[in-house]
Amino acid sequence: MTHALIVIDVQNDFCPGGALAVAGGDEIVTGINALMADFAAVILTQDWHPAGHSSFASSHPGKAPFEMADMHYGPQVLWPDHCVQGTPGAAFRDGLETTRADAIIRKGMNAAIDSYSAFFENDHETPTGLDGYLRTRGISALTMVGLATDFCVNFSAVDAARLGYDVSVRRDLCRAIDLDGSLDAALAGMCEAGVTLV
Predict the structure, then answer these.
(1) Into which CATH architecture does domain 2-48+80-197 fall?
(2) What pTM did the predictor assign?
(3) For 125-140, what is the mean pLDDT?
(4) Fewer beta carbons within 10 Å, N or C terminal of the chain?
(5) What span, in angstroms and rounded, lies between the C-alpha atoms of 27 and 138?
(6) Using one digit for the tens of pLDDT, what is the confidence trace for 111-132?
(7) A single GO BP annotation from the record (predicted)?
(8) Cβ atoms of residues 148 and 176 within 8 Å
(9) Distance of CA 143 to the CA centre of its chain
C-alpha cells in the first residue's frame, strides 16, 4: 500500500495576518515538514481564486463575510477575498518545504464555484484531477494535514474516504476556523465517513 501525505492549503491568507486567518495556522509548518520524509509521495493543495470569485462576500452587494448565499450548487459561506491568484496571500507559507512536493493541486479557479475539497469542486461532481493522479501512482492510503480542519481538510478527507482511500487526519497538524460549531460537525462527519482521526 503506497501512502501519500496531502498538505492542504498552508498558505499565507490562512495564517495569522492573512485575509482569512486561522488561529495558529502557522504553528503546524514545522511538524508538517518533519512528517514529509515518512511518505512515498507528498501532494500540496493551493486555494487559487480569480479576483471577484463568487464565494467572496465582496461579489455580493449588501452581504458581509461569513454570511450565507444560495448558489446553483447549494448553500455557500461568503468569505473575505482570499488566496487571489498571484498575490502574496495565495503563496505557500514561508518555511513550508514546497520542494518536497511531488505535485501541487490548485483549486477554486472556476469563478462560478468554490472548491473546498482537494478532489471535487463544491458541486461534488467536477473533479480537480487529484484522484486520477493518485490512482496512476498506485496510492491507496492518505494522511491529511493543513488548513482548515472544518472546511478544506474535512471536505477532502470525506471525499477521499468515499472514493475508497484509507484516510487519516492528523489533528495536531491541522487548525480550524470553527464557524458556528463547524469543527464539531466536521469531526463527526469525518468519523461517519470512515476517516481515522489521529
Answers:
(1) 3-Layer(aba) Sandwich (3.40)
(2) 0.96
(3) 96
(4) N
(5) 32
(6) 999 999 999 999 999 999 999 9
(7) pyridine nucleotide biosynthetic process
(8) yes
(9) 13
For residues 89 and 33, give the distance between their C-alpha atoms in angstroms, rounded to a whole number: 20
State the catalytic residue, choosing from 13, 15, 83, 107: 107
**Nearest-CA neighbor of 10 among 198, 195, 152?**
152
Model pLDDT for residues 22-44, shown as the tens digit of each residue: 999 999 999 999 999 999 999 99
- Active-site pick, 9, 81, 114, 159: 9
Assess whether 13 carries a catalytic annotation. Answer: no
Q: Distance (Å, rounded) from C-alpha 161 to C-alpha 43?
A: 17
Q: Is 63 a catalytic residue?
A: no
The span from the CA of 37 to the CA of 24, in Å, is: 23
Q: Where are the domains of the chain?
A: 2-48+80-197
Catalytic residue list contains 172: no
**Which are the contacts of 77, defined by CB distance < 8 A and separation ≥ 6?**
55, 66, 67, 68, 179
